[in-house]
Design goal:
Number of helices: 4
Shape: globular
Mean pLDDT: 79
Number of strands: 2
Strand order of the largest sheet: 1-2
Largest sheet: 2 strands, parallel
Distance between the termini: 35 Å
Oligomer: single chain
């Protein structure tokens, strides 16, 4: 059993759904209400999109304290619905 465990650690899994965001924008999707669930979120896209939607000025810096407040309010809806969020970030920037 130990050998099987070591071999499974060598397996690399890559999941990439190219043009997924575009697919969502173009196709009409039925909204659903999530409660008492777990979701996995693309962290980089989520935080970049949140920053743009926050409309905070960025000429002299990122206004990090105001952005943190925006995120607290935004993420409160997940907490209120008892949704556990896992944010995944890509570690390799070469591809």
């Amino acid at each position: 059993m130990g050998k099987l465990h070591r071999e499974s650690q060598k397996t690399e899994v890559k999941m990439r759904i190219r043009t997924f965001c575009k697919f969502i924008e173009v196709n009409e999707l039925e909204p659903i209400v999530l409660q008492n669930s777990t979701v996995v979120i693309d962290g980089m896209n989520f935080f970049c999109r949140c920053f743009v939607e926050s409309q905070l000025p960025s000429q002299f810096g990122c206004e990090s304290h105001r952005f943190a407040n925006y995120l607290r309010k935004y993420l409160a809806m997940f907490k209120k619905a008892n949704i556990k969020c896992y944010f995944v970030f890509k570690a390799d920037t070469s591809t």
